[in-house]
Amino acid sequence: xxxxxxxxxxxxxxxxxxxxxxxxAVGAAxxxxxxxxFTGCNIENAALGCTLCAERAAVAAAVSAGHRSFKxxxxxxxxSSYCTPCGQCRQVLSEFSPTMEVLCSRADGRYVSYRLDKLxxxxxxxxxxx
Length: 130
Prior knowledge:
Blueprint: H1 3-14, E1 26-32, E2 37-41, H2 54-64, E3 70-77, H3 87-96, E4 101-105, E5 111-115, H4 116-119
Parallel strand pairs: 3-4
Antiparallel strand pairs: 1-2, 1-3, 4-5
């Protein structure tokens, strides 16, 4: 799957966003090591702490289907800036694939690519709990 194909899947997921408070719709497409792709969108809640980001929604879908090793994730929004994952999402993604590729796109179709460990250096993981 090309970067563009994965980003298009994230853009399609963004259309299902439930974002009545921020009006900032986000979609994500998570590619597993085996090639399967799971999507998610942000789901807001009046109790803001209950809001679920698109990236974590995609991870939940993948893990619920038995997948735990991820190759990369594409994140799309209609904003003019590149949509990078928030801190909580970085931590959740790192739990499964700390060096995965993160494709961050913006409304004009341009995107940048990061390695997750560069977005979340010195992450907290299982090794810190030993």
